[in-house]
Amino acid sequence: MRRAALLLLLPLLLRAAAASGAGLPETGEPAFCVPDTFLAHEIAAAAPSGVVRLHAFRLGAGVLAGMAIGESDAAAIARLAEGSGPAAADRYCTWYVNRGNREAERLFRQIYLPNPSSLRADEAAEVYGELFGPALTEGPDGLWQCLDEKGFLAVGCNGQKHRGPTAFGMVLAALGCAPEHAAEIVNRLWGLNDVPEQNRLAAIRRGYDIGARNPELRARLQRLLTKPGPD
């Protein structure tokens, strides 16, 4: 009798849980990680002259930006960053994950990442974790100090087609976004461009794992990106 009553009540309980917000994704990711929500936070201003394939997003008190650094005018990127606070001493809180643009290598933090399309999925996770992973940890040379203190960080490669979008997705995943959502966001923004989907996702999952090692830092950054920011 009790079992029959519980079965009758189950649909009502499920509807009540949904209405109250229970049943959120098990990842517990911030609301901004839902792809459509994230994309709605894009800063509408046109890209400054000289900055190629720029997408910038204001999330709470922070700005996350990705662009084709190698194909852009490095001085124009520096001016863009200065508008949010970072200066030359901060290396403009910009990470250039390729090589070839000498001025970008001089002005910004540079980490050379191989093209993920040339790797197997397991290699992409290993190599990107080894090379870009340290930037996703707490410390003076990491991205998070820039985001925490300056409210800005930018990531990009040469054409923002292969390496840069993958690294940007790792940033989102390290912040607590489900890897599948982070991958969808960067794929919608900049495309896969012949990068095997499983390769990019494997690297992004490694970013999630790195962020999960420091839950206190992840929670602090999530608060920063969800608190009211400037109008």
Structure description:
This protein has ten helices and five strands. With 231 residues, the chain is an alpha/beta fold. Strands 1-2-5-3-4 form a five-stranded mixed sheet. Strand 1 and strand 2 form a beta hairpin. Helix 7 (163-174) runs parallel beside helix 9 (197-212). The longest helix is centred in the N-terminal third of the chain and has 19 residues, at 2-20. The radius of gyration is 19 Å and the shape is globular.
| Helix/strand class | alpha/beta
DSSP summary: helix tally:
10
How would you name the oligomeric state of the polypeptide chains in this document? Answer: single chain
Name the beta content range. Answer: 5-15%
Which CATH architecture would you pick?
Alpha-Beta Complex
Q: H/E element string?
A: HHEEHEHEHHEHHHH
For the termini, the CA-CA separation is 58 Å
Report helical residue fraction: 40-55%
Overall structural domain count:
1
| Named CATH topology | Protein-Tyrosine Phosphatase, Chain A
CATH class: Alpha Beta
Mean pLDDT: 89
Instruction: Report the principal-axis shape.
Output: globular
How would you summarize this macromolecular structure in one to three sentences?
The protein is an alpha/beta fold. It is built from ten helices and five strands; from the N terminus they run ααββαβαβααβαααα.
